[in-house]
Amino acid sequence: MTPGTFSQIYIHIVFAVKGRQSLIDSAWEKELYMYLSGIIRNKDQKLLCINGMPDHIHILLGMKPNCCISDLVREVKKSSNDFINQKQFSKLRFQWQEGYGAFSHSHSSLDNLITYINNQKEHHKKQSFKEEYHNFLNDFQIEHKDEYLFDWIDPESISE
Question: Is-contact 60 117, C-beta < 8 A?
């Protein structure tokens, strides 16, 4: 970093399992989070919080201004795809869905956001990921078309 460069950039990143399948199992999610933490640290970024659900993940980080979000997310997703498949955590071939959400936050909102991310399992008893993601887009006034969002699988259409 250049001397005299000061920044405070907090980014909340959200991405989903391909097809929104519930493939992240509680038996290995902590190991996945530790692996993701290592990737972020190796990219010289500061992880503040990570948590998720079987079908998606939330990452909050303090970013340095020389970091490119798309490059970081691409590396996190690619490396963790390989990690999950090599470890054979999932019976199905694991893959992250294309795309992600990245939302900037102020320092004053971090405590509430960290609590929100840490309480994902409780939060999603009341709200679906689809509703959550639409709320993020609306709250941040991000124009979008539903057909360009994640592929949403209707749980009722999945046969046993």
Answer: yes
What is the distance between the alpha carbons of residues 33 and 80, in angstroms, rounded to a whole number?
9
Tokens 């006034």 belong to: 141
This prediction's pTM: 0.83
Give residue 100's identity as a one-letter amino acid code: Y
Distance, CA of 75 to CA of 97 (rounded, Å): 14
Contact of 16 with 56, CB cutoff 8 Å: yes
> How high is the pLDDT of residue 144?
67
DSSP string, 42-75: HTT-EEEEEEEETTEEEEEEEEPTT--HHHHHHH
CA atoms of 126 and 28, how far apart (whole Å): 24
3-class secondary-structure state, position 1? coil
Do residues 48 and 114 lie in contact, with contact meaning Cβ atoms separated by under 8 Å? yes
Report the C-alpha gap between 135 and 132 in whole angstroms.
Answer: 5
